[in-house]
Amino acid sequence: MRIFRVATLAALTAVCAAAVLSAQTPAAPKTADGHVDLNGIWGVAPLPPAVKPGQSVRWLLPLKGVNPEGTDVFKGLDRWQVDGRAAAPNKPEYKPELLAKVKDLSDKQGVLDPAFYCKPQGVPRMGPPTQIVQTPGQVVFLYGASNLFRVIPTDGRPHRADVDPSYMGDSKEHFDGDTLVVDVTNFNDDTWLGSDGYFHTEKMHVVERLTRKGDVLTYTATVEDPDVLAKPWTTTPRDLKLSGNRADGLVEAPPCVEHDAPHIVTLDHH
Amino acid sequence: MKRPLLVAVAALMLGGATLAAHHSFAAEFDINKPVTLQGTVTKVEWVNPHVYVYLDVKDASGKVTPWSLSSLGPAAARRAGVTRANFGQGQQVTVLAYHAKDGSNFGFMRRMTFPDGHSVELWLGDDEARK
Prior knowledge:
The complex is a heterodimer of chains A (about 270) and B (about 130).
Chain A: H1 6-15, E1 40-41, E2 57-62, H2 73-87, H3 99-107, H4 109-112, E3 131-135, E4 138-143, E5 148-153, E6 170-176, E7 179-185, E8 205-213, E9 216-224, E10 233-234, E11 238-241
Antiparallel strand pairs in A: 1-3, 3-4, 4-5, 6-7, 7-8, 8-9, 9-10, 9-11
Chain B: E1 5-6, E2 29-45, E3 52-58, E4 64-70, H1 74-79, E5 92-100, E6 106-113, E7 119-125
Parallel strand pairs in B: 4-6
Antiparallel strand pairs in B: 2-3, 2-5, 3-4, 5-6, 6-7
């Protein structure tokens, strides 16, 4: 759940985001073929011990300033997220004639967001992979939270022309020094770039950049969609700390099963 | 009652993973309509984007009414240390929930209490704001 802000930012930073890189940052290791080695699990915090059956547990999803005994809990959660995104400086810029459409979609996000109903969030909204497996000729991105994957050739072949548009698109990639550059096309239009009505067309073109410095991987994605965006948009860099490369490090996520939609009666959203 | 296990907020964090999108709880549940249900847990559905617990509630006449209850997402629950085994499959429990706005036998489960007095509560808020 991406619904945590002030109280947890410090924890986020400590657990998964990189610490400030010092001038002594070691060089990124290389694979046998000389490319930067991106193998590993990135930005995944170890699980805490499980509570034993029969033991009490009380846990609050942190909502700073919201009394857990009050009547503002649900609204407070929505407000926290909406306000947090509104305050974020980096947003995709749409053509002026489409701003009303974006606002309308945003207002109805609670029922229209394609990421509901268990659809993939797609590239780039799904963010960086949780595990990267690098072999000669291909790189595999694994997304542990959603059980999704991408297999990306690195042999210089062009984009495929024989597959349907999709949520994660068609990817090809090359290395630029210690950066893996992934070029993605052939998207469907059934994803948003974010929760605030940021729709796109099938013409969207995304370039992801994954740069390793020491044990930190930095992920950004640049989105071009000239039919709807006023200019290309680059996501805010996300720094992910190497979390190891254990064979059992990534566990199967529970499937997504949608039960809520029939019970939604207002346009409250977060 | 056994001493609650207080899990650090930091344990919540999910790393770089982007999880399933969530509907607004306010769009579904009425915070002003808490309901206490006593019944048997018939099923714990450990799925995204929310965990669901199914409860057979028996009234004084013996009539059984099935309820379904939403909770937080499974990843958030696990970060709190809570697994499927903590949600009382097959057991008699008392649940504090908030009723669905559509009036159906559906709610958002805040706390499950067991006959021996121990409880599992996954909720939202800031204890500092109670003062």
